[in-house]
From TrEMBL:
Lineage: Bacteria, Bacillati, Actinomycetota, Thermoleophilia, Gaiellales
GO cellular component, one term: cytoplasm
Name the record gives this protein: Glycine/D-amino acid oxidases (Deaminating)
Sorted UniProt keywords: Oxidoreductase
Pfam families: DAO
GO MF annotation list: oxidoreductase activity
InterPro entries per the UniProt record, alphabetical: FAD-dep_OxRdtase (IPR006076), FAD/NAD-bd_sf (IPR036188), Rhodanese-like_dom (IPR001763)
Organism: Gaiella occulta
SUPFAM superfamilies: FAD-linked reductases, C-terminal domain, FAD/NAD(P)-binding domain
Length: 404
């Protein structure tokens, strides 16, 4: 697969793996690539390599459900994702790569009075931060999304929704290729098929990375390995408060476009959107058991389709085309863990759970700033690993697309 991109000149072929880089980024997903891109663009730092054990975008960046939104519950989370959405809005021009970002609006459905209270809280936090979100009643849901069933003859009739007009979907593989293209043009090498096997840590500081293709010395390591964060951190003897589980999703065969909104229901444990190819993309909650297995399950397909058909009975004869799983590195407060650790020079970017892809641009900007200046930017200060020792968690459970 990677050869196609070299031939089409999307990716620059890397030079040989050198024995020293100032910065080594472990993980060639959207976060690792974005950090490399902003290191070069915003700070002129290019003595950087990205090590990816498989191919770029093979993990969470290629398995997520492409939803971009900023309607979080905590002021810390909402302020952070607001900047990510704003960066995504200009990213196609910035990367000179069509990312097919369509911002047609995002609904978080409420099926009970209690849920309406939570959606109202989110709307108020969002409004205070200048994020476009408001609670609407079921008739406005129907007006904005005429295809949805707001009838009473379903398990959980819709009472209203948190409506977030800037919410959208984007081509996730294009985000990966767009960043990779510009990273290569900046002279940064992306080494695919190179696995990290250990770290050289002495006197409380990282001095290098051991890989399947030899050792590399470096000043800074960033682990941006999403679902693989715990095993990677374990090689550095760094315990992370993360549990890894899978999230499942599927797409249907393509049908004529009829849904331009993103529909999420925590009560039904589903989210639904229609891709530019016409496929319905349907995902569910994180499975309630830790695993690194990538096996999908039939119960997921059964309950997800049952609920989707209550919202969109029009899909009753539509066939399922593909079904996959992705790893979710869940932190205890559902917020990410970013920045410095007790090991000097060893930075982490993890704990993204189900929110990682939508944060790629702002994560790249802020982690690049941290690497370049040695100072943690205010926007990511609340997300330090240290918060689990100081009891200053940032509980984002209420804004999970689906309950966990
Ligand atoms: O938080 O938008 C979200 C999301 C979508 C899929 C999983 N989480």
């Amino acid at each position: 697969m990677k050869d196609i991109f070299f031939r089409k000149q999307v990716l620059r072929r890397p030079g040989p793996l050198r024995r020293h880089y100032d910065v080594v980024i472990v993980g060639g997903g959207s976060h690792g690539l974005a950090t490399a891109y902003y290191l070069a663009k915003n700070h002129g730092i290019t003595d950087v390599c990205i090590l990816e054990k498989s191919y770029i975008g093979s993990g969470a960046a290629g398995r997520n459900t492409t939803i971009i939104r900023a309607n979080y519950r905590t002021p810390e989370g909402a302020a952070f994702y607001k900047q990510s959405v704003e960066l995504y809005e200009h990213l196609s021009q910035d990367l000179d790569f069509n990312l097919m970002f369509s911002q047609h609006g995002h609904f978080t459905l409420a099926h009970s009075d209690r849920s309406l209270v939570v959606q109202n809280e989110r709307a108020e936090v969002n409004k205070l931060l200048g994020i476009d979100s408001r609670v609407i009643d079921r008739y406005e849901v129907k007006k904005l999304c005429p295809q949805i069933n707001i009838g009473e003859d379903v398990t959980w009739p819709i009472q209203g929704a948190l409506y977030h007009p800037p919410g959208g979907i984007i081509r996730h593989d294009a985000v990966v290729w767009g960043y990779a293209k510009q990273v290569g043009r900046a002279g940064i090498d992306i080494h695919q098929g190179v696995e990290v096997t250990g770290f050289d840590i002495r006197d409380g500081r990282v001095h290098g990375v051991k890989t399947s293709q030899g050792d590399i010395s470096c000043g800074t390591v960033l682990s941006a390995t999403a679902g693989w964060s715990s095993p990677v951190a374990k090689m550095a003897n760094l315990p992370l408060p993360i549990v890894t589980s899978i999230l499942q999703a599927f797409v249907t065969e393509p049908v004529k476009p009829f849904l331009d909104k993103i529909i999420v229901s925590a009560q039904m444990h589903i989210y639904v959107s229609q891709t530019d190819r016409g496929e319905f993309l349907i995902g569910a909650e994180v499975e309630p058991y830790p695993t690194y297995s990538n096996k999908g399950t039939f119960p997921f397909i059964e309950y997800a389709t049952r609920h989707v058909l209550e919202l969109f009975p029009q899909l009753h004869a539509t066939k399922i085309l593909r079904h996959w799983t992705g790893l979710c590195d869940m932190s205890p407060d559902y917020s990410p863990i970013m920045g410095v650790t007790e090991i000097d020079g060893f930075l982490v970017d993890c704990g993204w759970g189900t929110y990682g892809f939508k944060a790629a641009p702002i994560t790249g900007v802020t982690l690049a700033e941290l690497i370049a200046t040695g100072k943690t930017p205010a926007l990511i200060e609340p997300f330090k690993l240290e918060r689990f020792y100081t009891d200053t968690m940032v509980s984002e459970l209420a804004a999970a697309a689906v309950s966990h």
